[in-house]
Amino acid sequence: MKRKYLDYAATTPTHPDVVTAMMPFFSEAFGNPSSIYSYGQEARTEVIAARASVASLIGAQEEEIVFTSGGTEADNAAIKGVVFARDRGSSHIITTAIEHHAVLESCTFLQRQGIKVTVLPVDGQGIVNPDDVRKAITPDTVLVSVMHANNEVGSIQPIAEIGRIAREAGVSFHTDAVQTVGHVPVSVDELGVDLLSMSAHKLYGPKGVGALYVRRGTKLSPLIHGGGQERNRRAGTENVPGIVGFGKATELAVVEGAPEAERLTQLRNTLIGGLLDRISDARLNGHPTSRLPNNVNMSFDFVEGESLLLHLDMEGICASTGSACSSGSLEPSHVLLALGLSHQLAHGSLRFSLGKWTMHEDIDRVLEVLPGIVTRLRAMSPLGGTPGGSGNE
User: Fold this and answer.
1) How many CA atoms lie within 13 A of 178 on its CB side?
2) Mean per-residue pLDDT pooled into runs of 10, the chain (393 residues)
3) What is the pTM of this model?
4) Closest CA to 29 of 65, 37, 67
5) Across 109-264, where does the E strand assignment appear?
6) Which of the residues 35, 54, 222, 305 has the least number of beta carbons within 10 Å of its own beta carbon?
7) 213 and 301, same structural domain?
8) Residues 187 and 316 in one domain
9) C-alpha span between 251 and 150 (Å, rounded)
10) Does 172 fall in a domain?
11) Among residues 224, 325, 337, 369, which one is catalytic?
């Protein structure tokens, strides 16, 4: 049975062209980019080219790109780096309740160091109100961090409007764009951000490499010390194969991104409409239109998401429940709770995320098997309630 992978938001398969581009840098062009002889300079040349490619994708300058080990490090480096570089009298961060744990736990860590943190709510569709950001800014605010699009429910935030608010207040603005770079248009100038996090394995690149955009003039203390790499902003010998792969993935995204987003949006809408039509007491989580092209997050009352996931897996369908990064936890998704879902409904959620190799037959297969799975599980459910009513209530 050929498996149907519908969890691209967790990770994407590495594109074959990316693998081909990376291979020489494991054993042939293996030099350290800091070395002055030919092996090292060959590697350095490719790192420079990859940096230019990553910068071009988001409308940045090459020197504003800092390569990291992934999105989590980029988030940590942005938040801690701005705070550690601050004027000592300033000690306030603003973020939202639906951020990735890399942001929220960085803020919690800083809170234990005496930094004040304001966590803003979102509405029932997962959108933060820019006016709430404006009202939360104080003379002590050094950073606002709001993700571009949520990894669980796919809602895209009004980042450009928040960027204008932060700029008017003279406050640094960071966005976690791990889910958007390579999938929707991203321009650091149009968004008005000073820092932006990216991860290669979310756009068909390799795992273990990412980047942080740092606008020229932004004060940032390095998170990792020990060498002069990345213009003294991130010590450590560069992951040359990973960086080359990241660069190739961004090249492909420039060519394929727009038509692929259109294709996935159509598949996404087909899946959403089909599930709401076929399954009673189901609801779409996140904004209905201002959402990632590939994201479908649904909740089904009177059933557990983990059970749905296991039954889908037996049918050869890979999806996720809650956040893949926190799988194994018995706690419901903090994102879904922030949207106002009950614990029961949050536990009954599934996320399907589509990608390059998702086809119409994959969507048809989900629509064929999931309604029956839900019906069977509800018949055995100890959760109570009588399923019924409109599927989009």
Assistant:
1) 30
2) 92 98 94 84 93 98 98 98 87 97 98 96 98 97 98 98 98 98 98 98 98 97 93 94 98 96 98 98 96 97 93 96 57 93 93 97 97 95 54 38
3) 0.94
4) 37
5) 116-120, 141-145, 172-176, 195-199, 210-214
6) 35
7) no
8) no
9) 24
10) yes
11) 325
Residue 353, both tokens:
């995320």
Q: Which 3 state secondary structure label does DSSP give 343?
A: helix
Residue type, 375: T
Length of the chain: 393
231 lies in the same domain as 280: no
Domain boundary among 253, 285, 305: 253
Active site residue 318: no
Q: How many CB atoms lie within 10 A of CB 361?
A: 9
| Distance separating alpha carbons of residues 195 and 315, to the nearest angstrom | 42
Q: For residue 208, which amino acid is it?
A: G
C-alpha 43/C-alpha 148 separation (Å) is 32
Sequence-distant (≥ 6) Cβ neighbours of residue 341 within 8 angstroms:
285, 299, 332, 349
Phi/psi of residue 48, nearest 5 degrees:
-60, -45
CA dist., res. 270 & res. 272, Å (int): 6
Dihedral sign for Cα 315, 317, 305, 375, please.
negative
Q: Which residues touch 344 (CB under 8 Å, ≥6 apart)?
A: 301, 383
| Max Cα-Cα span within the chain | 73
